[in-house]
C-alpha cells in the first residue's frame, strides 16, 4: 500500500539521533563507568545475534498467517505441572530462538513445547512470495516427537494452538505455544526487537558498519510484512490473548503494546539510516527481492529506504486512525511524534504534529491525538492521569515526555513545546506524595506486587526532566531513586550528563535530599500522614481517589507503614489485567481492601471523594473524607483517621468509619503475612466452604460467578457471634520481601471498640502468579446488619516492635446536656500507656454541641485529644472546634473553630502560579492561615479543597485576601474539547462559600 505521493522526498539524514547526541554518547562512554557498561551490554547483545548470518536474521521476521499471543493458557498452566508455572509470573515461559528455535520451556518442570518439529513445518509452508501459507505446509510433520508415552497429537501445535481434549471452555482450552513464542520470543521483547535495538545502539556507539548492515536487513524484512499485519483475526475468545484493552485491535500484537514495538522500529531506522548504503546489504536484499518476486527490487539505498518508510513509518498514522496502534496516554502519540520527526519531511511533520494535539472524536482508547484535551480534562490538578494506579499514571509522564523530547529542537511551533505547559510539568510531580518511608509506593490499584518496596519512576526520566525544566524537586527525586548517592547517576547516553549532574548537585546543596512529609493531594485523592525519620519513620495512608480503570474498588482504603515494612499491603497488580472473575470479584473488589462493604456489593464508580478536614500538626495528624457516590443506598460513607504521637519513635492510629444506609455493613481489615492472635473473641471454625457460606466452595482462580461480593474468595473461616465489648487482633508481621537484615518481632494490632454482630477471621490470597507474593493474608471482617443501618466502626491500631507502649484501650461514655449520647455522630476513646499517660480522643460530627466525656472533660469541635499525666492535663488539641477543658483547667477556648468566607476571584488561565481572592469573615492575622486548607462549596462534580501556601491582603476588597495555592490549577476542563477558543470550566466560581478549619494546641510535645 503506497501512502506517500510520488513527489514526496525520502529521508536524507538522521533527524532524531543528531550529531550532537552521538558525540555526547561517545563522550559519556569515554568518561563514565555507567556509560561504558551500557555500551558493553548493547555490543554484547548485538554480537550475540550476529553469531548467526543475515539469512537467520531475515527469517526471524514471521508473517501475518502465524498468530501472536501474549497469553498462553493463562488459566490451565503447564500441560505437565499445571498451575505450578504460575509462581514464575504472568508470562513465565522460557526459550532461546538462536539455540532452540520454536520451543518453549516450562520454568517449573522443564518440559518443552510444542511436542512437534514446528520449524520444519513452518519452512514447508513458505510460499513463492516469502510468506507463510498454512494451506501449503506439510501437515505430516505435525506429530508428537518429544513424548513417546503420549499419543501423537499430544501438545502438537500447528501455529494455532493445541486444543486440550479434557477441556471444553473455548477461551481456556487452547495452549497457544507457537503464538506465545511468536509474540514474546520473536517480536515484542523478543529476538526481533532486542536485536534491532542492540544493533542500533551498538552502531551509534561504535560506527561499526556490521551492526548497521544487520539492523537494516531486519528493518527491511519487517517492512515487507508489516503493512498486512492484523492481530484482530486471532480472537481473544479462542485463546489468543493480546494487549488491546479488549478492543480486539492490533497489528503485529495487540494495539496497546504495538505502540511500543513500532517506536523501536522507527527510531532504529533513524539510528541505522547510513546502513542503507552498505554494499553487502544491497546485495543480500536484492537477491531476496528477486527470489520472492518482490515489486521493489531493492537494488539501491533509495529503494531500501522507500521500503522501510512505506512499510513501517508511513503505516503509523493510519494505524493510529484505525485503532490498530493505540495505547495508554502518550503511547501512540509518541509513536506518531517519532514517525513525524524521523521521516525528515517538513510537509508531513507540519501535518502530523498538530494532529497529535487536536481532539479527535469516535476513537477507541485514549484518542488519536488529543494531547491538549488530555492535559486539561484528564490530568488532574495534582498531575495524575485517570488510571488511578501510580504505575499506569506514570506511563502518561514517560510517554508524553517522549513526545516532548522528540519534538524538542525540531523547529516545531512553540505551541507544541510541552515543557512550557504547566500541566505537563506537573506530571513529573505525580509520584512525590506516594513516597513512604523513602522506599515504598503504595500498591494502589494495578501497581506493583503485594507490599514490595519500590518507588515509581525511572532515574533517567527525572534527570532529563530536571535538564529541561530546572525544577529542583526533579533533581531531589532522581537522587532518591539512585539511593541518595551520586555514583553512576545519569540521564540517557545522548545527553551532556556532566553538565546536568553538576546542576543537580547545586540543587541538592541548596534544597537538600528529597524528604516526604505529610501530604494530602485532593485532586487525585490520597493522603499520607507521616512522622519520624530513619528506623522510626511511620506512615498512614488513606486513598479516596478514582476506583475505575486500573484502579480497584477501594475508596477509603487505609494503609500502615512502620519499621521499614508495609504492615497491611494491598494486593497490587491482579493475576491478569483483563475481565477475569478473580480480578473483578476479588483482587479489585471492595472486600479485599481495608474499607467497608455495604450490602455485600462492590463500590460504584467515583472520581474523587470529598475531604472535610486535614491537619498536619506536631502531635496530631488527621484526615477526614466522605465518599457519597460509592454506595448510592447510603446517606453517609465517611472515614476519619488520626495519627497521634506517643513519643519520637512511635505513634498510634485511631479510625472512625461511619456508614449510614443499607442493610449490611462489613468492615474489612487485614495485616501483612503472619500469624494472628486474638483477645475477646471466641471463634468457632467453619467446617467447610467460604465466607460466602458453608456450602459455597472456594473460587478457583475466580472462574465462578457464585458470589459477586467476593466472599467466596475468603476461606479457612472462623466466626465469633456477638462479641461483648472491645476485642483485639494482633498480627505478627513477617518480613515477606526481606527488607530487614534480620527478621524482627514486628506487630500490627487493631482493637475494635464499637458494637458489631459478628466477627470472622478468614484467609484471602493476593495474586499467586506474582513471584514473592505471600500465599495468603489473614482478614478480619466485622459485620453488622439491620434495616436502614447506621454503623460507627471505631478502631485503634498500633504498630510495635517486641512490646507494646499501649496499656489499655476502651470506649468511654459521652454526654450532652447531662444525658448519654447514643448517636453514631460522636464517639470517645481512652488510650492508657505504660508510661502513665492517658489520652482521651473524641470525634464529633456536630461541632456546635458541647460534649462531656467521663464527666470531667468538656469538648466542642470536630476532633479533640486531651492528654493526662497523674490525672492532670498536659496536652490539648482541637480541630475545627472552640473548647477543650479538663476539670477546672480550660486548655483551649476560642471564638471560632473555622474561618468562613466566599470566593471573589481566581486565576483563570493555565498557570504555574495560581491564586484565589477571597472575602474572609473575622480574620485579623491572615499569616496564621498558611499551611491550612481551604474548602470551597462548589457544584460537587469534583472537590475544591486546596492547600494555602501563603496569604496576602487584597486592598481592593473588603476583608479581602489573596490565597496562593501554587501550581494547583483551578481549571477543570475545556468548555468544548473540540473548540479550545471557548475557554475553560472551573472547579470554583465567584460567590462560592468557603471554610478554613482551624486547629489549636495547648501544652508541649514532651509533656
Automatic annotation (TrEMBL):
It holds the Pfam family Hepar_II_III_C. Residues 545-624 form the Heparinase II/III-like C-terminal domain. One of its GO terms (molecular function) is lyase activity. Signal peptide: none annotated. It is found in: Cell envelope. GO terms for cellular component: cell envelope. It comes from the Bacteria. InterPro entries: Chondroitin_lyas, Hepar_II_III_C. This is Heparinase II/III-like C-terminal domain-containing protein.
